[in-house]
Amino acid sequence: MTDSEWRLAATARCPCLSGLQYGECCGPFHHGSAFAPTAERLMRSRYSAFAVGDADYLLATWHSTTVPSRLELDPEQRWYRLEIEATSRGGMLDTEGTVEFRAFSRADGSASEQHEVSRFVREKRRWVYLDGV
Q1: What CATH number belongs to 3-132?
Q2: Is the pTM here over 0.85, yes or no?
Q3: DSSP one-letter string for 27-50
Q4: Which of 9, 24, 94, 109 is the most exposed, fewest CB within 10 Å of its CB?
Q5: What residue stretches are annotated with the YchJ-like middle NTF2-like domain (predicted)?
């Protein structure tokens, strides 16, 4: 297990703000004991990975054709809110889908917002992040 997997207790509120505890929501995905069943669940788990600093999970859930060779997260950046604005396809029987979201963070005393429409596809039967605009 990486250090990031120990940063958040299973009983803590999940960073993706689903209303569930981390151990019931994104935690099992981060620990490798489950795989996201939908594109939105993968999106939420990837956001939570940013929030807990789990770069390994982010790389593991990136499409093989677009994954960067390495990923360094800013330890000073604190992700504090995720808003899912829209989803298209990405269900349990789909092979592709999109999730539009806004993610909010703070670093160096400044707040920032990321608005993205992310594309997800199935690769080897698992949802992965392809790209986003």
Answers
A1: 3.10.450.50
A2: yes
A3: HHHHTTS---SSHHHHHHHHHHHH
A4: 109
A5: 38-132
